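Re: the multi-chain job from yesterday

Posting the exact lines I submitted so nobody has to dig through the queue logs.
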Amino acid sequence: MKLTEARQQFISNWGAFGTHWGINRTMAQIHALLMISPDALSQDDIMAELNISRGNANMNIRELINWGLVERVIVAGERKEFFSAEKDIWKVVRQIVKERKKRELEPMLQLLDKLENTEGDKKDKHMKAFLDTVGSIKKLSKQADKTLDTMIKAEESWFVGNLLKLFK
Amino acid sequence: MKLTEARQQFISNWGAFGTHWGINRTMAQIHALLMISPDALSQDDIMAELNISRGNANMNIRELINWGLVERVIVAGERKEFFSAEKDIWKVVRQIVKERKKRELEPMLQLLDKLENTEGDKKDKHMKAFLDTVGSIKKLSKQADKTLDTMIKAEESWFVGNLLKLFK
DNA sequence: TTAAACTTTCAAATATTTTTGAAAGTTCGG
DNA sequence: CCGAACTTTCAAAAATATTTGAAAGTTTAA
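And the result, C-alpha coordinates for all chains:
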Protein backbone atom coordinates (compact mmCIF):
# COMPACT_ATOMS: atom_id res chain seq x y z
CA MET A 1 0.00 0.00 0.00
CA LYS A 2 1.15 3.53 -0.77
CA LEU A 3 1.60 6.20 1.87
CA THR A 4 -1.27 8.35 0.65
CA GLU A 5 -3.72 5.50 0.85
CA ALA A 6 -2.34 4.30 4.17
CA ARG A 7 -2.72 7.76 5.65
CA GLN A 8 -6.30 7.93 4.48
CA GLN A 9 -7.08 4.55 5.96
CA PHE A 10 -5.54 5.50 9.23
CA ILE A 11 -7.48 8.75 9.43
CA SER A 12 -10.76 7.22 8.45
CA ASN A 13 -10.45 4.28 10.82
CA TRP A 14 -9.34 6.45 13.69
CA GLY A 15 -12.45 8.51 13.03
CA ALA A 16 -14.74 5.50 13.08
CA PHE A 17 -13.01 4.25 16.19
CA GLY A 18 -13.63 7.56 17.90
CA THR A 19 -17.37 7.35 17.32
CA HIS A 20 -17.49 4.21 19.47
CA TRP A 21 -15.94 6.17 22.28
CA GLY A 22 -18.18 9.20 22.41
CA ILE A 23 -15.75 11.29 20.35
CA ASN A 24 -17.02 12.74 17.15
CA ARG A 25 -15.68 11.58 13.86
CA THR A 26 -14.13 14.84 12.76
CA MET A 27 -12.41 15.45 16.05
CA ALA A 28 -10.82 12.02 15.91
CA GLN A 29 -9.83 12.50 12.27
CA ILE A 30 -8.13 15.81 12.95
CA HIS A 31 -6.30 14.15 15.80
CA ALA A 32 -5.22 11.31 13.54
CA LEU A 33 -4.04 13.70 10.85
CA LEU A 34 -1.98 15.72 13.30
CA MET A 35 -0.48 12.62 14.84
CA ILE A 36 0.92 11.46 11.51
CA SER A 37 2.04 14.88 10.32
CA PRO A 38 5.73 15.63 10.69
CA ASP A 39 5.06 19.37 10.94
CA ALA A 40 2.40 21.49 12.55
CA LEU A 41 -0.58 22.24 10.29
CA SER A 42 -2.68 25.36 9.92
CA GLN A 43 -6.45 25.33 10.10
CA ASP A 44 -6.55 25.72 6.33
CA ASP A 45 -4.27 22.73 5.87
CA ILE A 46 -6.60 20.67 8.01
CA MET A 47 -9.69 21.89 6.18
CA ALA A 48 -8.09 20.97 2.86
CA GLU A 49 -6.79 17.56 3.91
CA LEU A 50 -10.04 16.43 5.50
CA ASN A 51 -12.42 18.36 3.31
CA ILE A 52 -14.30 20.00 6.10
CA SER A 53 -15.67 23.48 6.65
CA ARG A 54 -14.01 26.27 8.52
CA GLY A 55 -16.48 26.19 11.40
CA ASN A 56 -16.18 22.48 11.83
CA ALA A 57 -12.40 22.59 11.81
CA ASN A 58 -12.30 25.45 14.25
CA MET A 59 -14.70 23.88 16.72
CA ASN A 60 -13.03 20.49 16.74
CA ILE A 61 -9.50 21.86 16.97
CA ARG A 62 -10.62 23.86 19.98
CA GLU A 63 -12.10 20.76 21.54
CA LEU A 64 -8.87 18.84 21.00
CA ILE A 65 -7.02 21.66 22.71
CA ASN A 66 -9.49 21.45 25.63
CA TRP A 67 -8.75 17.77 25.91
CA GLY A 68 -5.06 18.57 26.04
CA LEU A 69 -4.33 16.50 22.94
CA VAL A 70 -3.36 19.30 20.57
CA GLU A 71 -1.52 22.54 21.02
CA ARG A 72 -1.14 25.81 19.20
CA VAL A 73 2.26 26.35 17.69
CA ILE A 74 3.73 29.66 16.62
CA VAL A 75 5.61 29.49 13.36
CA ALA A 76 8.13 32.27 12.87
CA GLY A 77 7.15 34.72 10.17
CA GLU A 78 3.59 33.42 9.87
CA ARG A 79 0.52 35.32 10.86
CA LYS A 80 -1.74 32.31 11.25
CA GLU A 81 -1.80 29.68 13.95
CA PHE A 82 -0.50 26.17 13.53
CA PHE A 83 -1.42 23.06 15.44
CA SER A 84 0.38 19.93 16.45
CA ALA A 85 -0.61 16.83 18.37
CA GLU A 86 1.14 15.06 21.17
CA LYS A 87 3.05 12.19 19.55
CA ASP A 88 3.85 10.16 22.65
CA ILE A 89 0.96 7.75 22.57
CA TRP A 90 1.24 6.83 26.23
CA LYS A 91 0.83 10.51 27.12
CA VAL A 92 -2.19 10.63 24.84
CA VAL A 93 -3.76 7.66 26.59
CA ARG A 94 -3.10 9.10 30.02
CA GLN A 95 -4.53 12.44 28.99
CA ILE A 96 -7.70 10.82 27.67
CA VAL A 97 -8.07 8.72 30.80
CA LYS A 98 -7.62 11.80 32.93
CA GLU A 99 -10.26 13.77 31.06
CA ARG A 100 -12.82 11.01 30.92
CA LYS A 101 -12.34 10.28 34.57
CA LYS A 102 -13.03 13.90 35.38
CA ARG A 103 -15.97 14.19 33.04
CA GLU A 104 -17.62 10.84 33.68
CA LEU A 105 -16.38 8.82 36.60
CA GLU A 106 -16.37 11.64 39.11
CA PRO A 107 -19.95 12.78 38.42
CA MET A 108 -21.04 9.14 38.56
CA LEU A 109 -19.48 8.74 42.00
CA GLN A 110 -21.31 11.82 43.22
CA LEU A 111 -24.58 10.42 42.00
CA LEU A 112 -23.99 7.06 43.62
CA ASP A 113 -23.24 8.70 46.95
CA LYS A 114 -26.51 10.52 46.78
CA LEU A 115 -28.46 7.43 45.74
CA GLU A 116 -26.98 5.38 48.53
CA ASN A 117 -28.90 7.52 51.00
CA THR A 118 -32.27 6.73 49.49
CA GLU A 119 -34.78 6.48 52.30
CA GLY A 120 -37.11 3.53 52.71
CA ASP A 121 -37.69 0.15 54.23
CA LYS A 122 -34.51 -1.85 53.91
CA LYS A 123 -36.53 -5.04 54.16
CA ASP A 124 -38.44 -4.29 50.97
CA LYS A 125 -36.97 -6.33 48.14
CA HIS A 126 -37.02 -3.45 45.67
CA MET A 127 -35.17 -1.30 48.15
CA LYS A 128 -32.71 -4.05 48.86
CA ALA A 129 -31.98 -4.77 45.19
CA PHE A 130 -31.52 -1.08 44.52
CA LEU A 131 -29.15 -0.48 47.40
CA ASP A 132 -27.17 -3.62 46.63
CA THR A 133 -26.63 -2.61 43.04
CA VAL A 134 -25.82 1.01 43.80
CA GLY A 135 -23.49 -0.05 46.59
CA SER A 136 -21.54 -2.49 44.53
CA ILE A 137 -21.20 -0.12 41.60
CA LYS A 138 -19.98 2.51 43.99
CA LYS A 139 -17.43 0.20 45.50
CA LEU A 140 -16.03 -0.74 42.12
CA SER A 141 -16.09 2.85 40.88
CA LYS A 142 -14.16 4.07 43.89
CA GLN A 143 -11.55 1.46 43.27
CA ALA A 144 -11.37 2.35 39.59
CA ASP A 145 -11.03 5.98 40.52
CA LYS A 146 -8.01 5.34 42.70
CA THR A 147 -6.44 2.96 40.24
CA LEU A 148 -6.81 5.40 37.38
CA ASP A 149 -5.27 8.16 39.48
CA THR A 150 -2.22 6.06 39.95
CA MET A 151 -2.13 5.09 36.32
CA ILE A 152 -2.26 8.74 35.28
CA LYS A 153 0.92 9.30 37.21
CA ALA A 154 2.66 6.17 35.97
CA GLU A 155 5.33 5.88 33.34
CA GLU A 156 4.85 3.98 30.14
CA SER A 157 7.53 1.56 31.21
CA TRP A 158 5.23 0.49 33.99
CA PHE A 159 2.46 -0.33 31.62
CA VAL A 160 4.59 -2.08 29.09
CA GLY A 161 6.78 -3.90 31.54
CA ASN A 162 5.04 -4.61 34.76
CA LEU A 163 1.33 -4.85 34.56
CA LEU A 164 1.19 -8.03 32.60
CA LYS A 165 3.36 -9.90 35.02
CA LEU A 166 1.20 -8.91 37.92
CA PHE A 167 -1.91 -10.36 36.43
CA LYS A 168 -0.41 -13.76 36.01
CA MET B 1 -34.94 10.87 48.37
CA LYS B 2 -37.64 8.25 47.83
CA LEU B 3 -36.99 4.94 46.13
CA THR B 4 -39.12 5.73 43.09
CA GLU B 5 -37.22 8.92 42.38
CA ALA B 6 -33.87 7.34 43.13
CA ARG B 7 -34.60 4.51 40.70
CA GLN B 8 -35.53 6.99 38.02
CA GLN B 9 -32.36 8.96 38.56
CA PHE B 10 -30.26 5.85 38.42
CA ILE B 11 -31.87 4.70 35.19
CA SER B 12 -31.67 8.05 33.54
CA ASN B 13 -28.05 8.66 34.50
CA TRP B 14 -26.98 5.18 33.53
CA GLY B 15 -28.58 5.89 30.16
CA ALA B 16 -26.70 9.18 29.73
CA PHE B 17 -23.51 7.51 30.86
CA GLY B 18 -23.96 4.82 28.24
CA THR B 19 -24.15 7.35 25.43
CA HIS B 20 -20.58 8.45 26.24
CA TRP B 21 -19.48 4.89 25.73
CA GLY B 22 -21.03 4.10 22.39
CA ILE B 23 -24.00 2.34 23.97
CA ASN B 24 -27.39 3.65 23.13
CA ARG B 25 -29.49 5.31 25.75
CA THR B 26 -32.30 2.80 25.77
CA MET B 27 -30.03 -0.19 25.94
CA ALA B 28 -28.26 1.27 28.96
CA GLN B 29 -31.57 2.15 30.60
CA ILE B 30 -32.96 -1.34 30.19
CA HIS B 31 -29.75 -2.65 31.68
CA ALA B 32 -30.03 -0.25 34.60
CA LEU B 33 -33.65 -1.22 35.21
CA LEU B 34 -32.87 -4.91 35.20
CA MET B 35 -29.90 -4.45 37.50
CA ILE B 36 -32.03 -2.85 40.19
CA SER B 37 -35.00 -5.17 39.79
CA PRO B 38 -35.28 -7.93 42.38
CA ASP B 39 -37.14 -10.17 39.94
CA ALA B 40 -36.92 -10.87 36.25
CA LEU B 41 -39.08 -8.59 34.09
CA SER B 42 -41.05 -9.30 30.95
CA GLN B 43 -40.74 -7.26 27.80
CA ASP B 44 -44.07 -5.64 28.64
CA ASP B 45 -42.85 -4.69 32.10
CA ILE B 46 -39.83 -3.04 30.56
CA MET B 47 -41.91 -1.23 27.95
CA ALA B 48 -44.19 0.09 30.67
CA GLU B 49 -41.43 1.14 33.08
CA LEU B 50 -39.37 2.95 30.48
CA ASN B 51 -42.18 4.08 28.23
CA ILE B 52 -40.73 2.66 25.07
CA SER B 53 -42.17 0.84 22.10
CA ARG B 54 -42.28 -2.88 21.58
CA GLY B 55 -39.77 -2.84 18.75
CA ASN B 56 -37.31 -0.73 20.66
CA ALA B 57 -37.56 -2.91 23.73
CA ASN B 58 -37.16 -6.07 21.71
CA MET B 59 -34.14 -4.87 19.77
CA ASN B 60 -32.28 -3.54 22.78
CA ILE B 61 -33.01 -6.56 24.97
CA ARG B 62 -31.64 -8.72 22.19
CA GLU B 63 -28.53 -6.57 22.02
CA LEU B 64 -28.02 -6.85 25.77
CA ILE B 65 -28.27 -10.61 25.43
CA ASN B 66 -25.66 -10.51 22.64
CA TRP B 67 -23.38 -8.58 24.94
CA GLY B 68 -23.85 -11.27 27.57
CA LEU B 69 -25.26 -8.79 30.07
CA VAL B 70 -28.84 -10.05 30.21
CA GLU B 71 -30.37 -13.47 30.04
CA ARG B 72 -33.73 -14.98 29.30
CA VAL B 73 -35.42 -16.52 32.30
CA ILE B 74 -38.23 -19.05 32.26
CA VAL B 75 -40.86 -18.40 34.86
CA ALA B 76 -42.97 -21.42 35.76
CA GLY B 77 -46.52 -21.18 34.57
CA GLU B 78 -45.92 -18.18 32.35
CA ARG B 79 -46.09 -18.18 28.60
CA LYS B 80 -43.95 -15.13 28.03
CA GLU B 81 -40.23 -14.67 28.45
CA PHE B 82 -38.64 -12.83 31.33
CA PHE B 83 -35.27 -11.17 31.50
CA SER B 84 -32.74 -10.58 34.20
CA ALA B 85 -29.36 -8.87 34.33
CA GLU B 86 -26.11 -10.08 35.79
CA LYS B 87 -25.89 -8.47 39.23
CA ASP B 88 -22.23 -9.08 39.93
CA ILE B 89 -20.81 -5.80 38.73
CA TRP B 90 -17.30 -7.16 38.34
CA LYS B 91 -18.64 -9.78 35.96
CA VAL B 92 -20.46 -7.02 34.09
CA VAL B 93 -17.28 -5.01 33.71
CA ARG B 94 -15.30 -8.01 32.52
CA GLN B 95 -17.99 -8.91 30.06
CA ILE B 96 -18.04 -5.39 28.63
CA VAL B 97 -14.26 -5.31 28.39
CA LYS B 98 -14.28 -8.64 26.63
CA GLU B 99 -16.85 -7.56 24.07
CA ARG B 100 -15.29 -4.21 23.33
CA LYS B 101 -11.90 -5.76 22.98
CA LYS B 102 -13.27 -8.18 20.45
CA ARG B 103 -15.24 -5.56 18.57
CA GLU B 104 -12.75 -2.72 18.61
CA LEU B 105 -9.25 -3.48 19.76
CA GLU B 106 -8.79 -6.59 17.65
CA PRO B 107 -9.87 -4.97 14.37
CA MET B 108 -7.65 -2.00 15.21
CA LEU B 109 -4.66 -4.29 15.64
CA GLN B 110 -5.33 -5.89 12.29
CA LEU B 111 -5.43 -2.50 10.63
CA LEU B 112 -2.19 -1.38 12.27
CA ASP B 113 -0.42 -4.53 11.12
CA LYS B 114 -1.46 -3.76 7.59
CA LEU B 115 -0.48 -0.11 7.81
CA GLU B 116 2.92 -0.94 9.19
CA ASN B 117 3.80 -2.47 5.85
CA THR B 118 3.17 0.69 3.89
CA GLU B 119 5.71 0.94 1.13
CA GLY B 120 7.81 4.01 0.51
CA ASP B 121 10.99 5.87 1.23
CA LYS B 122 11.75 5.55 4.92
CA LYS B 123 13.84 8.69 4.72
CA ASP B 124 10.87 10.83 3.75
CA LYS B 125 9.65 12.72 6.78
CA HIS B 126 5.97 12.03 6.07
CA MET B 127 6.72 8.36 5.82
CA LYS B 128 8.76 8.44 8.97
CA ALA B 129 6.12 10.29 11.00
CA PHE B 130 3.45 7.89 9.77
CA LEU B 131 5.39 4.75 10.58
CA ASP B 132 6.45 6.08 13.97
CA THR B 133 2.91 6.85 14.98
CA VAL B 134 1.46 3.62 13.66
CA GLY B 135 4.26 1.65 15.25
CA SER B 136 3.88 3.15 18.68
CA ILE B 137 0.10 2.81 18.66
CA LYS B 138 0.54 -0.80 17.68
CA LYS B 139 2.99 -1.44 20.46
CA LEU B 140 0.69 0.04 23.05
CA SER B 141 -2.36 -1.73 21.64
CA LYS B 142 -0.65 -5.10 21.74
CA GLN B 143 0.23 -4.54 25.33
CA ALA B 144 -3.30 -3.45 26.14
CA ASP B 145 -4.61 -6.53 24.38
CA LYS B 146 -2.57 -8.87 26.54
CA THR B 147 -3.30 -6.99 29.70
CA LEU B 148 -7.03 -7.02 29.07
CA ASP B 149 -6.92 -10.74 28.35
CA THR B 150 -5.45 -11.33 31.74
CA MET B 151 -7.89 -8.98 33.38
CA ILE B 152 -10.80 -10.81 31.80
CA LYS B 153 -9.67 -13.93 33.57
CA ALA B 154 -8.97 -12.24 36.89
CA GLU B 155 -11.06 -12.30 40.03
CA GLU B 156 -12.63 -9.22 41.52
CA SER B 157 -10.42 -9.62 44.55
CA TRP B 158 -7.49 -8.93 42.32
CA PHE B 159 -8.87 -5.66 41.16
CA VAL B 160 -10.03 -4.47 44.52
CA GLY B 161 -7.07 -5.69 46.46
CA ASN B 162 -3.94 -5.79 44.40
CA LEU B 163 -3.86 -3.44 41.53
CA LEU B 164 -3.64 -0.31 43.55
CA LYS B 165 -0.67 -1.50 45.52
CA LEU B 166 1.23 -2.37 42.41
CA PHE B 167 0.95 1.08 40.97
CA LYS B 168 2.50 2.71 43.99
C1' DT C 1 -54.84 -28.11 13.27
C1' DT C 2 -56.23 -23.83 15.08
C1' DA C 3 -56.04 -19.55 17.06
C1' DA C 4 -54.43 -16.90 20.74
C1' DA C 5 -50.24 -15.44 22.82
C1' DC C 6 -46.23 -13.98 22.12
C1' DT C 7 -41.82 -12.34 19.43
C1' DT C 8 -39.44 -10.30 15.59
C1' DT C 9 -38.81 -7.33 11.72
C1' DC C 10 -38.26 -3.16 9.24
C1' DA C 11 -39.77 0.99 6.59
C1' DA C 12 -41.07 5.30 7.89
C1' DA C 13 -41.10 8.94 11.39
C1' DT C 14 -38.61 11.30 14.98
C1' DA C 15 -34.88 12.84 17.51
C1' DT C 16 -30.17 13.88 17.97
C1' DT C 17 -25.75 15.13 16.45
C1' DT C 18 -22.78 17.08 13.29
C1' DT C 19 -21.58 20.20 9.64
C1' DT C 20 -21.82 24.22 6.93
C1' DG C 21 -20.75 28.90 5.71
C1' DA C 22 -21.64 33.55 6.01
C1' DA C 23 -21.43 37.19 9.27
C1' DA C 24 -19.42 39.10 13.27
C1' DG C 25 -15.41 39.53 15.97
C1' DT C 26 -10.44 40.02 16.77
C1' DT C 27 -5.61 41.00 16.00
C1' DC C 28 -1.81 43.18 14.08
C1' DG C 29 1.44 45.56 10.79
C1' DG C 30 2.03 49.81 9.01
C1' DC D 1 -6.31 54.49 13.49
C1' DC D 2 -7.24 51.38 9.13
C1' DG D 3 -7.98 47.42 6.74
C1' DA D 4 -6.30 42.93 5.58
C1' DA D 5 -5.57 38.56 7.71
C1' DC D 6 -7.16 35.65 10.52
C1' DT D 7 -10.54 33.37 14.13
C1' DT D 8 -14.93 32.52 16.20
C1' DT D 9 -19.83 32.05 16.38
C1' DC D 10 -24.23 30.14 15.51
C1' DA D 11 -28.65 29.46 12.98
C1' DA D 12 -29.98 26.61 9.49
C1' DA D 13 -29.10 22.39 6.72
C1' DA D 14 -27.48 17.81 6.38
C1' DA D 15 -26.23 13.52 8.12
C1' DT D 16 -26.77 9.96 11.43
C1' DA D 17 -28.92 7.34 14.94
C1' DT D 18 -32.87 5.92 17.33
C1' DT D 19 -37.67 4.85 17.87
C1' DT D 20 -42.16 3.61 16.51
C1' DG D 21 -45.85 0.46 15.49
C1' DA D 22 -48.16 -2.33 12.45
C1' DA D 23 -47.54 -6.48 9.92
C1' DA D 24 -45.37 -10.84 9.54
C1' DG D 25 -43.55 -14.69 11.90
C1' DT D 26 -43.37 -18.20 15.56
C1' DT D 27 -44.77 -21.02 19.37
C1' DT D 28 -47.80 -23.50 22.22
C1' DA D 29 -52.02 -25.25 24.57
C1' DA D 30 -55.87 -27.54 23.67
